[in-house]
Amino acid sequence: MRVHVEPITSFERDRRVLARMIDAGEANETEVEAYEMVSDPAVRDLNRQQRSRAGQYLRRLRRRTRHT
After folding, report:
1. What is the reported pTM?
2. Is 49 exposed, middle or buried (0-12, 13-18, 19+ CB in 10 A)?
3. Is residue 21 within 8 Å of residue 29, measured between CB atoms?
4. Where is this chain compositionally biased, Basic residues type (predicted)?
5. Each residue's pLDDT tens digit in the chain (68 positions)?
């Protein structure tokens, strides 16, 4: 049985890209709002926790498939 889980992207990468766009004056209002959202420490922490949990789940699945 092969389970496919979509990877959760890091907000850190998105935040850096959006910051460069804002600094260059190329960002529109929606991109500025997105930057403000992903810069919120609580949102960044939640994203890290979700990615960590997803990684733990994938590692557990791999271990189970090796032992069966």
Report:
1. 0.68
2. exposed
3. no
4. 59-68
5. 455 666 677 888 889 999 999 999 999 999 999 999 999 999 999 999 998 998 898 899 889 888 76
